[in-house]
Amino acid sequence: MNKKGLTVSMIVEAESANYGEGVGNVASLKKISRGDHEVYTYISRQALRYNIVDQMDINHTPLGMDGSVIQFHPEATIADYPEIDLFGYMKTVKPTKTRAAVVRLSNAVALESYNTDLEFLTNKGLFDRHKSATANEELRGGNIAQSEIHKSFYAYTLTVDLDKIGIDTNDQIEIPLEERAERVISLLRTLKFLYRDIKGRRENLAPIFAIGGVYDLKNPFFENRLKLQNNKLAVATVEGVLALDSHIQQHTHVGLVKGLLANDEEIEQSLQAKPMADFFAQLEQAVSDYYK
Predict the structure, then answer these.
(1) What would the pLDDT profile of 55-65 be if each residue is shown by its tens digit?
(2) What are phi and psi of 282, to 5 degrees?
(3) Which of 145, 149, 147 is nearest to 16 (CA)?
(4) pTM over the 0.90 mark
(5) Residue 60 backbone zone (phi > 0: left; psi -120 to 50: alpha; other: beta)
(6) For residue 133, which of 126, 192, 199, 212 sits 20 to 30 Å off, Cα-Cα?
């Protein structure tokens, strides 16, 4: 098959969507710093992968043990389990087999800086109920905690090696082309409505802006190229990527949910943005055409 790659870069809006190791009773968001001396929260690629395989309902690959290490079962193959077809595996039980992921994710990094906002939490409701039920007048205090919070737009990128889907040279497996297409289209439909459950909230990770396509080159063209300035997408930066090569310009599609970015009209006119439903329909068609 011709070597082709699918890449999609997306902007989503979310709040406090991934916590790391806390300090004492303070829950800490995952963060990175940049050379502009600002701090940005992020949603790890592992967290995104977890939500994707869960919502694709492909998280049923059997597990095994090599010593004390949990890993995918040696007998599990990509023919039966799309999870290890898309995201790869390492089986260290002899004979050792590894397969690199053909679907790759970047971290979703905030496009707006974090300004150390904190939420103060108590269990006062339960404390009052317990105190009333036990009539214990000596009971004092309750439990308090603090949690870092950050609401922001986030950008992340997905890439797929379309020519490697459904092929595993370790086990001499090649699944039918129709099934390969179904797996990638199922992935796209999951991204279209992705969400994340965290700390009693369900965060909507469906993209409000998306750009990408199916290309002869496998470069993630738009990764780290989506920037916001005063709630406006830096259109000139995207146009600079499109101008790199006529092939990129010809095969790129843009989706937009209107009313969230301040320069909707500029995005529509300059990037020929379509409704998000049309964007994903165009990508699904491109994937179907490739596997025909």
Answers:
(1) 999 999 999 99
(2) -65, -40
(3) 149
(4) yes
(5) alpha
(6) 199
- Give the pair of three-digit tokens for residue 129: 């109920």
Angle among Cα 7, 155, 89 to the nearest 5 degrees reads 55
261: its two tokens? 């970015």
Using one digit for the tens of pLDDT, what is the confidence trace for 183-226?
Answer: 999 999 999 999 999 999 999 999 999 999 999 999 999 999 99
Amino acid letter, 196:
R
What gap in Å lies between CA 38 and CA 17, rounded to an integer?
A: 19
Task: Encode 238-272: b = buried (16+ Cβ within 10 Å), e = exposed.
Answer: beebbeeeeebeebbbbbbbeeebebbeebeebbe
Tokens for 45, please give them.
């690629």
| Residues in the chain, overall count | 292
Instruction: Kindly tell me the burial class for residue 292, based on how many C-beta atoms sit within 10 Å of its own C-beta (0-12, 13-18, 19 or more).
Output: exposed
